[in-house]
Amino acid sequence: MEKTFRFEVLSNLAGRYRVATLSNNEFFFRCGQYLNLVSPLGKEIPLTIASSPLELPNLKVIYRPEPSNPDSLLLEEMLDQQTVDTSSPQGSVGYPTDEKHLVLICKGTGISQAASMIEHCKLISTPRKILLIWNTDEPLETQAEDSPETWFPSIDQIVSHHQEILNYLETQRNSLKDAHCIITGDPEFVYTVHDMLLKRGFFMASIQSDVFDYAPR
């Protein structure tokens, strides 16, 4: 049986995107990994860790409440308790250990993984360049309300569809050569962006995504 960890819930900040801070002295993870919150009935809900391992024993998770989603309602209920159980760390996506540029292309709450990477970069004082692109399906008038910039470092570009991602990347083509790329979001989004990068000749040092593991094609 896989080991579970009991975290103390230190805080759970309200908002369109909620940021929960958890603490456990025995839990360790690699930058870029996620965990599963485990309900009392054994249901697992995956959440990407949104902080650096250097911040342990505390870590952060980010989620967006969805009143019509049963998993979201359960997640909120669990994180409103004093403690919550989790799985061991999951996922093969990892922080690149060299100093090549880093491109983070995120959709929705997939920005959690970017948060972990950017915080880690700051804590180790790396000179690498980081480019962060956040995709939201919300209409333009609500993007300002949705923007996580109140709790997150500066976002280089907010977009609403794949063509806008491509247009922006074209303006950054020189700095993207031989960069590491991490893509987060649902499988359709991840594979669309992945194929677009290859088709348009963006030559990356590596392209990583958790989708490649849990939804291979």
A few lines on this structure:
By secondary structure, this protein is of the alpha/beta class.
Commentary on this structure:
By secondary structure, the protein is of the alpha/beta class. The chain has 7 helices and 11 strands. A 6-stranded antiparallel beta sheet has the order 4-3-6-1-2-5, covered by helices on one side. The chain has a 5-stranded parallel beta sheet with strand order 9-8-7-10-11, sandwiched between helices. Strand 3 and strand 4 form a beta hairpin. It is globular, with a radius of gyration of 17 Å.
Indicate the overall shape. Answer: globular
Compute the separation of the termini in Å. Answer: 29 Å
- What is the spatial order of strands in the main beta sheet? 4-3-6-1-2-5
Work out the number of β strands: 11
Number of separate structural domains = 2
Largest sheet: 6 strands, antiparallel
What is the CATH topology assignment of the largest domain?
Rossmann fold
Rg over CA atoms: 17 Å
Order of helices and strands: EEEEEHEEHEHEHHEHEH
Give the helix tally: 7
Fourth-tier CATH superfamily name of the largest domain: Nucleotide-binding domain of ferredoxin-NADP reductase (FNR) module
